[in-house]
Hints:
Layout: H1 2-13, H2 18-43, H3 45-51, H4 57-79, H5 85-106, H6 116-135, H7 137-145
Helix pairs in contact: 2-4, 4-5, 5-6
Amino acid sequence: MSVLVNKLLERFLEKAPFSVTLLGILALILMLFNATRFGVALAKWQLILEYMPEPGPIYTAATGLLWAFCWLIVYLGIELAWRWSGVAFLLLSFLYASYYWLDRLFFQLFAERSNALFAFIATVLCLSGIIFLLALPQSRAYFAAKSEIKESEV
Length: 154
């Protein structure tokens, strides 16, 4: 059993490539942003009810908590080099971008739309950058080589 723990610890302490580190930082930032959204929704419940009754503080808090939890799982997957974390990062990025645009179009009806082109270009560039970082050979090798430890290795 101690050999298994040593191998897990060894793999955890190996240095990740720069591209994987960038993905981890991005996941951590998005997790913190959404956790802050959740906390602010709870702290400023009445203010949100007053100025934004639709969709309201329940929606804001629930989506903040949901996305914070999802990004936390992906961040931990990247840090622990789980095989599925690269694919999960890509999938969650596309889901998050879709959520952003659906929220913007349906729940922010009275918001200024003058920066829509900029927001669209920024979204496309971010998603393209994520695809690029995940497609790099170092990133693919990191997630492929550092998969779960097999019993035969012990």
